[in-house]
Amino acid sequence: MPRSILIAAALALVAPAHAATKAAPVAAIDTGKLAGAVEDGVASWKGIPFAAPPVGALRWRAPQPAASWSGIRQATEYGHDCMQLPFASDAAPLGTPPAEDCLYANVWKPIGAKAGGKLPVIVWIYGGGFVNGGSSPPTYTGAHLAKQGVVVVSFNYRLGRFGFFAHPGLRREGADGPAGNYGFMDQVAALQWVKRNVAAFGGDPSQVTIFGESAGGMSVVTLLASPMAQGLFAKAVILSGGDGGAAKAPIAYAEQVGVNFGLEKGIAADDPQALAKLRALSAEDVVDGMNLANRAPANPSTYLGPFVDGKLALDPNAAFAEGRFARVPVMIGATGADIGGKTGFMVAGARSMAGLLSGQGVPVYAYRFSYVAESLNEQGAQHASDIPFFMDTAAIKYAGKTTARDRAMGKAMSSYLVNFAMRGDPNGKGLPAWSRYARASDAIMDFAATGEPVAVKDPWGREIDAAQAARH
Questions:
Q1: Which helix (H) or strand (E) holds 168?
Q2: Distance (Å, rounded) from C-alpha 244 to C-alpha 220?
Q3: Best CA proximity match to 25, nearest among 202, 160, 182
Q4: Number of C-alpha atoms within 13 angstroms, CB side, residue 32?
Q5: CA of 343: how far to CAs of 35, 268, 316, 471, in Å?
Q6: How many CB atoms are located within 10 Å of the residue 370 CB?
Q7: pLDDT tens digit sequence for 265-309
Q8: Strands 37-39 and 32-35, how do they pair?
């Protein structure tokens, strides 16, 4: 590439202070100054490095500190989503080409919020089965929540074998942290970044709500139980997070899966250069054609995903039962036609966890999402279909087909979420009362097919409990 083009690209990324226009909002964080953008009453900053690019020798390492810069960095475009093989049927298609250099955060705030303004903070953690997903999909914008008086942060975390990979060579290297769950390490690093920097955007670092769906919900479960995440958040929202965050497999098995992958690539387990050879593989070779649509078990297996490591990722059910977790208010639920149906993993898992946490005295607000957008010809609310309503982005998701009833449901659900982020209680003016969950009353909020939030005793409660009892 000609030197002139390289120089122009560098100048476009980090502009001198005088180049920032007066209209661009500037925030000063611990690594430098950022120029964002303003649209419709919301200021935003995108593509903010919260850690060093995890490439080369940093592949399969805990996230390292981001480099500082001089001048004002332009922060108006999303950074790359993490390396993966996208697929056409993803519920929220990516807005960037995936790459290994992907550890970036994004921030939205009301335009009037000042540094040190102490607004509640909502941190979004995307789903995608730990092999797909990213922060760039338009449906995941935080702009509409920010309009309701909160700061919203999203970020990327490593996926697939980049994010979850164990190998005897990594254990022997012993560089840093519990080797294996690098995607969870990224999540902790992002929350640490929020704690250090969100005040620069008007957010209160002591009032952070973590908010995730599917793999993101499972991540929230993991973070609730993780000793390494304690003190980094004050509330938690779990959408379709099942009843756990990681495979309860021995580390020896996780390492064998990594060895199997190496063998597939011609790298022997006892090769003294095994780790160097694995790190020298192309990003495409590490993905190896895997995504959410084709994670069929191999024989022998070459991918495990998150696993209990005893340091960062614990067995959450055991931690909750023993009281070893962040005792913060929790909102939890699933969609009516979620994965596994009414007695399956997502719905039954949410019910089980609501009972477990509320039994420990934690404020829990349980929900079920039964609403189907009016333009969809579907029976029941499918997995992930609650996201655009909680984020008030139904008009983006469904575009010109969005109806007044869709918009009303989005306004109600996003209001509950914002209230919860503000006070640890979703209730607020003009909204149907939402009671704390207790197994005795079994009261949940149903975001009903009629388009109204309705407080009910769980109509599937007995059936779910009977099915779970039969399994055990």
A1: helix 168-173
A2: 9
A3: 202
A4: 20
A5: 49, 44, 20, 11
A6: 18
A7: 999 999 999 999 999 999 999 999 999 998 867 889 999 999 999
A8: unpaired
What three-state secondary structure class fits 187? Answer: helix
**CATH superfamily for domain 19-249+307-471:** Alpha/Beta hydrolase fold, catalytic domain (3.40.50.1820)
Residues in Cβ contact with 457 at an 8 Å cutoff, skipping those fewer than 6 apart: 441, 442, 443, 444
How remote is the C-alpha of 455 from its chain's centroid?
28
Nearest CA among 155, 151, 157, 158 for reference residue 209: 151
pLDDT digits (tens, 9 = 90+) for 6-16: 333 443 444 44
pLDDT digits (tens, 9 = 90+) for 347-382: 999 999 999 999 999 999 999 999 999 999 889 999
| Cis ω for the linkage preceding 300 (within 30 of 0) | yes
DSSP annotation of 364 reads E
Q: What are the tens digits of pLDDT across the range 215-243?
A: 999 999 999 999 999 999 999 999 999 87
Tokens standing for residue 267: 């790298």
Burial (CB count within 10 angstroms: exposed 0-12, middle 13-18, buried 19+), residue 213: buried
